[in-house]
Amino acid sequence: MADQKKKKLTLVQQEYQELAKKHEPPRPLLSNFTRAFLVGGVICLIGQALQEMFIHYFHFTEKTAGNPTVAVLIFISALLTGIGLYDRIGQWAGAGTSVPVTGFANSIASAAIDHRSEGLVLGVGGNMFKLAGSVILFGVGAAFLIGLIKTLIKMGG
Amino acid sequence: MRQGHQSWVFSTKPVIAGSSAIGGPFEAQGPLADDFDTLHGHLMIGQDSWEKAERVLLEEACDKAIEKAGLTKEKIHFMLAGDLMNQSISANFSARTLAIPFLGIFGACSTSMEGLALAAQLVDSRSADYVLAATSSHNAAAEKQYRYPTEYGSQKPPTAQWTVTGAGAAVVASQGNGPRIQAATIGRIVDMGMSDPFNMGGAMAPAALSTLETHFRDLQLPHDHYDLVVTGDLGKVGHSILSELLPKHNVFIPLERYVDCGMLIYGDNPNVWSGGSGCGCCATVTYGHLLRRMKEGEWKRILVVATGALLSPISYQQGESIPCIAHAVAIEAEQLSGGGV
């Protein structure tokens, strides 16, 4: 893919891109990885604590405690997005805040806030899934395929 | 009058009779805060959307520039304005409020100097006595349109730039007191195949180089003619690329005299990554900071090279590279021209 793209460039363009590359400060990968690991881990820890709480104090089973746990995490994420903190945490934590379910909630809440000025139906309704929509589409698609494969294997066994 | 292939020399040396710079809350924390005419404490500026807030910035900039020129808006013959919003809504809607005969222009972040060059040409050719050139950008409105939702927690790379919330305007007049516009070079589009919208400085640097090379060739000027050469919004990345490219292409501008508006406006703030960008970047720094320092006598001749990345969110998603442009305007201090007429 990258090679294909490069072939289309003229020699002058290729030379320039090599020169420009030297001036780009590299992404701080080590600190990005560390921060993502730490923040992502903390979010999972909070999730685990919530799950334990729902099991021990609210009599959920291990299977059913998942739903209220995710709901609480989504609520916290949407709240932090609304008060303008989540994007700042996201810049610092990177994948740490975008990979867990909180990142998914943030993508929906932030799009909804942005398009509030265009009205509730066409603005919020029409745009809030503009980032999350692809996650839902391909997530459901993948889940369907995996489910199909699992069922077929079971039938065979 | 045209000189060389793509430059204009203005024999009447049109005057910048009034100029203004309006900024937002983040600009107010920057090192150039004192050079703004008005600074707003909130991104919304009392409006119910960012798009409306940008319009207020632009209208305020126009009003202020006209006021500082000692004129009323009825006296202005034409208005040239543009911005980053789709269909240039900020400029169009401001022109509705001002009711001045209007030509919309778009050069992305190069709009400021595109407008100033055209305004000088209109005045120099006696097509108008007073022309208003203005442009604006708004951080949140631009982020929403070009990138991700403003509150979306994505991590930006160190080559990214921060869109300036601000507007700048200048009234160009056939006579009066103020800095004078001596010449302009209209850039051609340069595309080096760069396609990363988070590295616009890198994409735009070759366009600035092309315009600078042409400017000195067309006007047959020595490379140290200007006390200051300023690019629009190349940021740290673009500034360092251009500093390497210039001597390679035999343009020997003394590098201590070369600065970039995108680096000036926020100083060393690490939260803006490579620096500032947007139509408002070059406009507010030039019309606020640079012209003020010129009047104070710090520089006698400056060359402002506004750079623009002409991409759209659709062209980027379709995998297109970023076409870039740069327009240069040479401004000289009033004292050099022997004062007002």
From TrEMBL, chain A:
<keyword id="KW-0472">Membrane</keyword>
<dbReference type="InterPro" id="IPR005562">
    <property type="entry name" value="SpoVA"/>
</dbReference>
<keyword id="KW-1133">Transmembrane helix</keyword>
<dbReference type="Pfam" id="PF03862">
    <property type="entry name" value="SpoVAC_SpoVAEB"/>
</dbReference>
<protein>
    <submittedName>
        <fullName>Stage V sporulation protein AC</fullName>
    </submittedName>
</protein>
<keyword id="KW-0812">Transmembrane</keyword>
<feature type="transmembrane region" description="Helical">
    <location>
        <begin position="70"/>
        <end position="86"/>
    </location>
</feature>
<feature type="transmembrane region" description="Helical">
    <location>
        <begin position="29"/>
        <end position="50"/>
    </location>
</feature>
<feature type="transmembrane region" description="Helical">
    <location>
        <begin position="133"/>
        <end position="153"/>
    </location>
</feature>
<dbReference type="InterPro" id="IPR014203">
    <property type="entry name" value="Spore_V_AC"/>
</dbReference>
<feature type="transmembrane region" description="Helical">
    <location>
        <begin position="93"/>
        <end position="113"/>
    </location>
</feature>
From TrEMBL, chain B:
<dbReference type="GO" id="GO:0016746">
    <property type="term" value="F:acyltransferase activity"/>
</dbReference>
<dbReference type="InterPro" id="IPR016039">
    <property type="entry name" value="Thiolase-like"/>
</dbReference>
<dbReference type="Pfam" id="PF07451">
    <property type="entry name" value="SpoVAD"/>
</dbReference>
<dbReference type="InterPro" id="IPR038369">
    <property type="entry name" value="SpoVAD_sf"/>
</dbReference>
<protein>
    <submittedName>
        <fullName>Stage V sporulation protein AD</fullName>
    </submittedName>
</protein>
<dbReference type="InterPro" id="IPR010894">
    <property type="entry name" value="SpoVAD"/>
</dbReference>
